[in-house]
Amino acid sequence: MCGRSLTFRTANSTFGAMPLPRPPLGAQPHPNEIGKWSVGHSRHRTSGGRAAFHASMIIPSNRQSQTQVAEIIRGGGVIAFRTDTFYGLGADPFNQYAIRKVRDLKGREDAKPILLLISDLSELDRFITEQSKSFKAVAERFWPGPLTLIGIARRELPVELTSGTKSIGLRLPDDEDLRALVRRCGGALTATSANISGQPPALSAKDVENYFPQGLDLIIDGGEVMAAQPSTVVDLSGSQPRLIREGAIARAELERIIPDYFGI
Fold first, then answer.
1. Which residues contact 92 (CB under 8 A, 6 or more apart)?
2. Using CA atoms, how far apart are residues 62 and 84, in angstroms rounded to an integer?
3. Span 166-178, mean pLDDT?
């Protein structure tokens, strides 16, 4: 390191809602509420003939629920699940309508991209164009673990996912059961926090239900969150690393790894 430490340029987190312009395939529009719809088993008819959401359903996390979750994700639905940090909202990252629903539920700005969980390192090439030396070094040292790395996004990723930033944040969690769930869902899931924008993160399935009494297809109860901090987020999509958020992995730990690959 030559006696010098790496200086990160700190920026605000860029993760996070845009209105839903049209329903996903198979969804039934509310006849008197343009722009709103329900998907799958979440829909029923009120006495007045209007469609409405059932209350969100909570089920325990097990192999049977993984099968159910996978079916919902394939059908364009949105679920809540416990990640390696807090509870998150899961959807197919290649389904633009599901992503829009996630954004609508959270009520966040459409300028914020949505981070993903991946099941295996082999999934990286589906989402980023290339792995720089620094990206590989940090991933090798801290993955699986509570570190979100931002790389240059592949062009074919939905703009609803990247918000036009041309970058994407990915994390490989240090939880085999969680990785198995993500694997069953196709190898990647959105994992933006399961809370209304600006509110504290959900620490339990009940917290999620309180935030979203309607609108989710399923809530997977993975127990109380034990993590005290969110994941650390590092942007490695450019020539200069940026520490977007310091969390479970301290800045000092990153400085010991990255300078070796930047000649500092």
1. 73, 74, 76, 98, 185, 186, 189, 190
2. 16
3. 96
- Stretch among 139-148, 215-224, 253-262 having the lowest mean pLDDT: 253-262
pTM of the full structure: 0.78
Domain count, the chain: 1
Does residue 45 fall inside a structural domain?
no
Band (74; pLDDT cuts 50, 70, 90): very high
Cα-based distances in Å from 42 to 57, 100, 184 = 9, 17, 22
Q: Which CATH number covers residue 173?
A: 3.90.870.10
Is 46 part of any domain? no
CA distance 194 to 205: 10
pLDDT tens digit string along 202-211?
999 999 999 9
- State the DSSP H helix or E strand holding residue 254, giving kind and residue range, or none if neither: helix 251-257
Q: Is residue 21 part of a domain?
A: no
234 lies in a domain? yes
Convert the pLDDT of each residue in 173-199 to its tens digit: 999 999 999 999 999 999 999 999 999
Residue 141 belongs to what H/E stretch?
Answer: helix 133-142
Using CA atoms, how far apart are residues 178 and 61, in angstroms rounded to an integer?
10
β-strand 232-235 against 147-152: which pairing, if any?
parallel
